[in-house]
Amino acid sequence: MQPNSALALGHETAPNVELLRRNGWSLNSVVGAYCVAWKGRDEVVFQWREGTWQRVGGRGSNEDL
C-alpha cells in the first residue's frame, strides 16, 4: 500500500454528496470539492473541507453540514 493512499490517511478525500441529499438538499452541480445545491428557496455553494460540507456562498441558508 502507498503511504499516502486514502486508506492509510484514515479519512475520506472525495466529497460525499449523500450527506447533502440526506439533509434535504437537491444537487445542481458538483465540481471537485464544490457543490451547488438548493433547498426550498435557498441556493448555496458548499465546499467539501476536512470531511464536511461548509457553506462558502449563495443566498439563503447559513447551514453547514
Spatial arrangement of strands, main beta sheet: 1-2-3-4
Number of helices: 2
Helix content: 10-25%
Distance between the termini: 31 Å
Beta-strand residue fraction: 35-45%
- SS-derived structural category: alpha+beta
Q: How much is the radius of gyration in Å? A: 13 Å
**Biggest sheet: strands, sense, closure?**
4 strands, antiparallel
Shape: globular
What does this structure look like?
This protein is of the alpha+beta class and 65 residues long. The protein contains two helices and four strands, in the order ααββββ. It has a four-stranded antiparallel beta sheet. The protein is globular.
Features:
four-stranded antiparallel β-sheet, single chain, alpha+beta, 65 residues, 15% helix
List the helices and strands and how they pair.
Elements (H helix, E strand, L loop, with lengths): L5 H4 L7 H6 L3 E6 L2 E6 L2 E8 L2 E8 L6
Antiparallel strand pairs: 1-2, 2-3, 3-4
What's this model, at a glance?
The protein has 65 residues and is of the alpha+beta class. It has 2 helices and 4 strands.
